[in-house]
Protein 1
Amino acid sequence: MNLERTAIRELFLLSAPPAGESCVKGWVRTVRRSKEVMFVELNDGSCFASLQLVLDPGRFDGSQLDGISTGACLSAVGPLVASPAAGQTWELSVESIELLGGADATYPLQKKRHSFEYLRSIAHLRPRSNTFGAVFRMRSALSFAVHSFFHERGFVYVQTPIVTASDCEGAGEIFRVTTLDPATPPKSDGKVDFSRDFFGQQTGLTVSGQLEGELFATAFSDIYTFGPTFRAENSNTSRHASEFWMIEPEMAFTDLAGDCRLAEDFLRYLTGYALEHCADDLAFFNQRIEKGLIDKLDALANATFETMSYTEAVSRLEKSGRDFEFPVSWGSDLQSEHERYLTEELVGGPLFVVDYPRDIKAFYMRQNDDGRTVAAMDLLVPRVGEIIGGSQREERLDRLDARMAELGMDPDPLWWYRDIRRWGSCPHAGFGLGFERFLMYVTGMENIRDVIPFPRTPGHAEF
């Protein structure tokens, strides 16, 4: 009988077994054999739980069952029946079975606990493990939630370039994109002649879609970008990757306060979505990865978000009596230890720190009237510190040009960015949320390499 596959998740949602037979397909997690009965734990990735298959060895040829081992891919057909075993509602009484793809004893994911470091070395197989199945289902669900949030609010989704000639942050940590022969590049006046490169100029992989997003905000009012970004930073910490995904909304006719309101609404929405739609996977994370995770997310979803100026934050840190590893002083950037003290011990919840010194922030941030600070904000949360960063953008061309000149920036490559300040300029603001950073927060995973399918870090670009 040729039946279409039914996802295991759908079977577990049933209040009563369906009439007739069901067809399930998936990968074997474990096998238990005896002369009288054979139990196979099958998982198809549709949910955390696996379905138990029950086979009577007397009904099948030995050759049909010999290839069933951990890692093998099976198709099984039979009636779904109530299970007498604890911890599961249904099991499949197998009447026919087909081995779609075998797996020998060298299959790396045997039934034992593997370290995350080892699983990174077999990233092509780790989605079949419990932990990474849960991580990537969560990633998928929250990707959908990102689009849902902005769609419900009338934002336009904009796909910004991956290859760009501008460096948004001005740090120079970009991957160069070129077709020139690195051994013998063409030169002019002793310098590489990029006019003979593929794009006719020096280009690299984007570090942010913000600048292009600003252009679209001046036409559509409210837009967002959600795509890959790249940073050629030689950092091997657990929080840095060379390729990561950024969510960057941009809003016209909005100031810093409005920017903070959207960031608060966005973080509440994503957290609430995870709690409502990813309960089984969250329960696993709560039990195996981070004790108290669900309580942490509940607290964030229902918290009061407070606001404090950078100047006040520095003053409170200086008066804290704490011996921080990094000294605190006005004009220096806040470190993770400072941010966690502010959010965990001082206010006991999420906190917006606003109005940072202009000398430690990017050129595009709107300068405040005091001449010392810019309209920037960081959203800090307990256990992590900064999770969202944003600002009101400088919409005044003369102030933008003066700031670029002060920083020694060549305005010519950003002629298009300056143009939107010449014609129909308006107040606008936006922020960025690193998707992997948020996934770390919502799953409890401690390494960014474990919340992205194929991590790209210094020295590693496998798969």
Protein 2
Amino acid sequence: MSDPATEKQIAYIKALGGKPKRGLTKEAASELIDKLRSSAPPTQKQLDLLQKLGATIPRKLTAEQASELIAQLDGEQPPTKQQIKYIKMLGGVVPATKREASQLCDTLPQTAPATPQQRKQADELGVSIPENATFTQANQFLSDAEMDADPEEGKPPTEAQLNKITKLGGDPQRVANRWRADE
């Protein structure tokens, strides 16, 4: 026997304009919700956003279709100021659309070289970033250097940490401090 629909499902069905029947199961409620969502009219928030994006709103538009249209139109907008600043900081060429900029913001850190800001921060920490390091690698290197310089985490490893490393087959002589011992 299937579990009965949850109160949350029942409330959502009602909010979508549906009328849940007595004895409705979780599975049937889930199917009804999907059906109602696919035919529900767009929300006022969706309509406002579509208008802001300059869309012509088709008759009999559903909330699901509105979501898809919003995603499409939003992706075709120019990149945001934040995206532009980030891409330029990494030495990339700013694309024409927000969608392309989002993709570039996701991939560029793995290929872009370390920035002058990162190198300056490394100098301030008294370390140097390898010449061919990417932006992401430099961030990790800086994070590690900050942990090494931390007053608490940068302390020598404890006897318990060294013993555990030895038990696990590691070399306790290679451990510089507490956080690296935990790693």
Protein 3
Amino acid sequence: MKQTIQLRRFLAAFLAALSGSAFPVAAKATDWQLYSGLDIHGSSEPVSLTDMMSGWDGDFQPGTYAYADARFRLGLRFDHWRLERETRWYYYLTFNRDTSEFYRELEQGLPGAADRRLELEVKGLQARGVRLAHSFGVASFSITPALAYYHVGHFQFGTLDGVSAAGDPLTASAVLDYHFDQDKILEYPADVGDGSGISADLQISGLLQERWRLEAAISDLWNRWQFDDAAFTTGCINLSGGGQAVCSSSGAASGRSGQSSYTTDIPWSLNAGGYDTAWQAGLRYFQHDRYQRFSIRKDWTTPLGELGASLHSTHQIGLHWRSGWHQLEIVSDDVRPAYARDVQLRIGFMLDW
């Protein structure tokens, strides 16, 4: 039972901080601008985001990823330069369909319905940093490279590779390779310092024929996360005997723990689209590794500002409101927060002088 709880914590802990983040709002042609932004983007294929964090007891479908990137930025723009202070929470889990079905059986206390191959990779971090960006023109396009430097407080990076066997009780055997600042599995008493990270972004935008606005932004185009003294665990987990064990352990779980240097990266994100300023309508595509989304949007100019609505291939509906001093976007696939699998929230404020 203790090992079952530990494995459940390992699979669920990495989306436990889905809150806060940032979005650099568009700048006007004024000398100075102070802005702030909150940007939360989360998607979970197998269950709702709430269930991904607290337990898979709701509606389930086999899936292969869970993703969350949340940022809060406070920035200052002068001319073509931007300087931002950012707090970031990032979590990305990838797995095969077998693993999602196995974990649901584990959560529900069900017997194993079939022999399965288990594959899981986790990338998670919480960081604070500064970003410097500079815009310059090439032909009719504006190009904005940006570079961010982070201090990383909490981090979890790990892989799990193994098998589970059909039957009751549920059995599984897996090899674990895990780097962390706090051990969520075998409770190794880690005492590590902060890590560091560097990430480069690139944004390109332009107006064609005074009507068509084209945009493409790549976040984390190149990134590197360095931990000089990361705690680690490599070992073997066997639940209820492990069935056809892929490794041997003394008891339900055993391995080697310690501390060493560790370097890794995370996938980049692409956000690109085109917008017809005459019709006030556009198309957009977003991708973060396995997560992909196509969107269509229509805006209307009103006395309250620019109001808009959007439809997305992830079964989401979005509402948008923008003026000269603020931006608000709410995009979700369910009006009930506890049932939503795909959610995006953006809030931004601007002050020009």
